[in-house]
């Protein structure tokens, strides 16, 4: 079957890795990770599925890695907050929100090997801790612990759903207090 271009095909942005990732996120956010197929993605982008392979030669494996990198990337710089602890709180809150916004990708964040995204996030946390006077070795452990706490909490929260009766915001804040108190 040859796909006929839609009337407004000229108005669409050209196919790019970023556009493919965004379309995949829309599918996952709306229908779940299990519904993501290259064919469904091609339909969403109004291209033949094979056109996606031009941007992602390794196919679905590369797509899944790209989704993890997109969702698990460090949020915007938070150093404008008053003090390093406030910056870490802002980072943790923003990161949790980002993960929950794309909860369908959380299983991939937890299970896929994509060290680049998480390594960069950990590096930026380590730097923030070091600027706050935390020694390098301790900053490395604290960054790893904080990253694990936020990802783990988001995964538990997403799994439980809204009808669990738990005040997830309060629980997250209380746990974050415990983690940050252990840093120094």
UniProtKB/TrEMBL annotation:
Transcription regulation as a keyword?
yes
Sorted alphabetically, the keyword list is: DNA-binding, Transcription, Transcription regulation
Q: Does the keyword Oxidoreductase apply?
A: no
Indicate the segments annotated as coiled coil, or none if absent.
Answer: none
* Signal sequence bounds: none
Its domain of life reads: Bacteria
> Where would I find the HTH tetR-type domain in this sequence?
20-65
Q: Please state every residue range assigned to the domain named Tetracycline repressor TetR C-terminal.
A: 80-161
PANTHER family, from UniProt? HTH-TYPE TRANSCRIPTIONAL REGULATOR RUTR (PTHR30055), TRANSCRIPTIONAL REGULATORY PROTEIN (PTHR30055:SF151)
Instruction: State the protein's name.
Output: TetR/AcrR family transcriptional regulator
């Amino acid at each position: 079957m040859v796909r006929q271009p839609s009337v407004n095909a000229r108005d669409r942005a050209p196919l790019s890795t970023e556009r493919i990732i965004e379309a995949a996120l829309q599918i996952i956010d709306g229908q779940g990770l299990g519904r993501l197929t290259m064919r469904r993605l091609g339909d969403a982008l109004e291209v033949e599925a094979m056109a996606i392979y031009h941007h992602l030669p390794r196919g679905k494996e590369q797509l899944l890695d790209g989704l993890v990198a997109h969702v698990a990337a460090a949020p915007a710089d938070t150093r404008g907050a008053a003090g390093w602890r406030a910056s870490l709180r802002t980072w943790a809150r923003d990161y949790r929100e980002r993960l929950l916004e794309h909860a369908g990708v959380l299983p991939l964040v937890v299970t896929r090997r994509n060290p680049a995204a998480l390594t960069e996030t950990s590096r930026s946390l380590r730097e923030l801790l070091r600027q706050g006077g935390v020694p390098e070795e301790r900053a490395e452990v604290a960054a790893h612990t904080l990253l694990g706490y936020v990802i783990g909490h988001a995964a538990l929260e997403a799994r439980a759903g809204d009808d669990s009766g738990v005040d997830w915001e309060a629980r997250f804040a209380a746990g974050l207090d415990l983690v940050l108190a252990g840093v120094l």
